[in-house]
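A reminder from the course coordinator: this example appears on the midterm review sheet, so study it carefully.

Given structure:
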């Protein structure tokens, strides 16, 4: 799961830091919707982690608990969409999707600890997620307030931020391989 999260966070940073370039691959009428891309990318990261975590109820023949988690997720999605879409529009739906998948991931992890514990490296995964989020917000801040409109500087700063993430991942993989080889 460590490497899955690292790759997904790399994709998240690549797309969000360079969203000004990626937007040219879609029609101009969709530019307004780009604001939900980071939310939906994180939502799908949570869904992917949920799929990784869900192995416990399949291996322990407790698929009813998996169905229960899915029903909770459906309830969260339906309830929040009914509440938030009239207030926030499609942004509310994006947040509802994120909270649904995040809740499913969290519930699956907690129940997995109880019924079929698997020693995931949660601290490591959370560290990479924290680094990626800090880099995302740094890029967003620079784009919005510091260098708004200066595309060259934004590109250079975002490239430095993405390179920092790549170096951090490389150091982690190197350290992980050294530990495993001992």
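Designed residues:
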């Amino acid at each position: 799961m460590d490497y899955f999260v690292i790759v997904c966070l790399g994709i998240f940073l690549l797309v969000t830091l360079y969203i000004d370039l990626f937007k040219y691959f879609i029609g101009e009428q969709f530019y307004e919707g780009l604001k939900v891309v980071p939310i939906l990318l994180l939502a799908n990261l949570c869904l992917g982690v949920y799929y990784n975590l869900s192995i416990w109820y399949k291996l322990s023949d407790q698929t009813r608990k998996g169905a229960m988690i899915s029903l909770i997720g459906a309830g969260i999605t339906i309830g929040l969409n009914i509440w938030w879409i009239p207030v926030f529009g499609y942004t509310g739906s994006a947040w509802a999707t994120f909270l649904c998948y995040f809740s499913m991931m969290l519930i699956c992890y907690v129940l997995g600890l109880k019924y079929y514990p698997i020693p995931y490296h949660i601290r490591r995964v959370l560290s990479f997620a924290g680094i990626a989020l800090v880099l995302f917000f740094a890029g967003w801040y620079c784009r919005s307030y510091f260098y708004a409109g200066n595309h060259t500087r934004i590109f250079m700063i975002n490239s430095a931020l993405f390179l920092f993430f790549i170096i951090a991942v490389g150091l982690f993989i190197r350290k992980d391989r050294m530990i495993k080889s001992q």
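Residues 2-181 form one domain. Residues 23 and 30 are 9 Å apart (CA to CA).
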